[in-house]
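FIELD: query
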Amino acid sequence: MLTLRLALRNVLGTGIRAWLNALIISLALVVATWNQGLVSGMDEQAAQAAQAIEFGGGQYWQEKYDPFDPLTLDEAHAPLPPALQALVDDGRAAAVLVLQGSIYPRGRMRSILLKGIDPGQPILDFPTAKITADGGELPALIGGRFAKAVGLARGDSVTLRWREPGGAFNAQDAAVAHVMSTTVASIDSNQLWLPLAKLQEMARLPGEATLVVLARGTPPPAAPPGWTFRDADYLLRDLRELVKAKSYGRTIFLVIFLSLGMLAIFDTQVLAIFRRRREIGTLVALGFTRGQVIRLFTLEGALYGVLAVILGALYGLPLLWLQARAGFPVPAGTEDMGISIGERIYPAYSAGLILGIVLVSLLVTTVVSLLPTRRIARLKPTDALRGRMS
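FIELD: result
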């Protein structure tokens, strides 16, 4: 207890220098926490958007369907089994038919995916109601990024071509009924959404589908023969691998921010040992062991970390709370990168994240404070009293 009181008195006795060191460390803590929370929030938003707009509570895939192999699409469809049809009829699932096709915008051919979905489905959160068939031209829903890439706008007509089961090609004009803005690039890139019944009729595949999207919160029944169930963990696996890869970059930022603060502590400790040679000698002469002196100087350095945590909490917590509530505006052009985020990123700060950064900073501060004190172990009391360092 005596050592603690002495260390606290020595730290506060340095005046403005103590608070400047604490301010530097607190800035590093606040910026590191903000950076971690920003990336965590972006990852959380991307996962939520993917589930709400594309994956739902899981998907049943026709056994031949492979989303990474377009050559499987000609055979990757089948009539809905009674169990899945019952889910669709109850509004607890949505059937999707996926076909390979082409469009000819402005005289150019472009390979795309034709996706059919019930316009009234309540499962996926994007505007399928815009493609309600009205008996006129075939309505199509298109994503904003793809529309920009091919030069299409609402009301434009475009020729579609697809292959029927017998191998013959067929074609029909479609009108762009709506250009949607979505954060999920996988329902936007190189694809047109059409009414499911119309696409089934065009492709001569009545009642067939490629996949069935289950509503979130609905217990998945056993997969019928010929179908495979993919849960949310499986569907989000690629996104989580991307998050894992980005975690290395976050660690680098954390190390950089903490290093800036620790450099100030290291310099302060080195200067303190050099300027307080006589004090060290006096303490040893009064009966302090070298270990006690080392603990005193180490504790002084650790107290800078404690002051930094207190100071950072005073101004950092309100700032972080305000940022989490107001969000961070996404720069223009980010949507072209295919990142599943909205117009604003809302950082996510968990108690574990904040506590982890605080504990790591206190541990690193203590270790950095200990390193310069190793010279005290080699110091002779008579030399210290004379103001000399061996």
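FIELD: remark
The chain is about 50% helix and 20% strand.
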